[in-house]
Amino acid sequence: MRRSFGTPSSLRARATIACLAGLVVTLVAGVGQALHEIRDLDSRRDQAHESKWDVASVTGTNAEAFRRLRATLDAGERFALVFPDDADRDQRGFYNLVSLSYLYPALASSDPANADAVMVFGPPPTDVRRAFDEIAVVDGVWLGRRSS
């Protein structure tokens, strides 16, 4: 005895309904997952906005000097970092790198003669003292602004 599952059009209709049901289940699951991801991203964004992490802190003991200089600089002003002759090359490179991003939108200058402000690691040279007024000395770092 042969069992009949229905006519071919009936089989196609059942297969179509099963495929559509599978598609609906997949879409509902996808939308649910997307909403979960969006909530997670919103939460991470809010945490990032609330975060008070300060890039200057990577400079260790000189963090407050970087913060203080940043507070005095306006966008487009130029700053220079001045190091003693015996300063470690790696330290110079590190501070230069940090200053490019942390003090932005102020612009770096390699020559204090072209700068509006300076950050001197150690005692300031005589020519820097003549050209700049002292803002502060923070943890042994001399900060100055061009004399008016």
Helix content: 40-55%
Number of helical segments? Answer: 4
Assign an overall shape.
rod-shaped
Q: Give the CA-CA distance, first to last residue.
A: 108 Å
Average pLDDT level: 87
Numbering strands along the chain, what is their spatial order in the largest sheet?
2-1-3-5-4
Low-confidence stretches: none
Q: Biggest β-sheet, characterized? A: 5 strands, mixed
What oligomerization state is this entry in?
single chain
Q: Decide which structural class fits the backbone.
A: alpha/beta
| Strand segment count | 5
Any overview of this molecule?
With 148 residues, the protein is an alpha/beta fold. The protein has helices at residues 8-50, 63-72, 89-102, 126-131; strands at residues 78-82, 107-108, 117-121, 132-138, 141-146. The chain has a five-stranded mixed beta sheet.
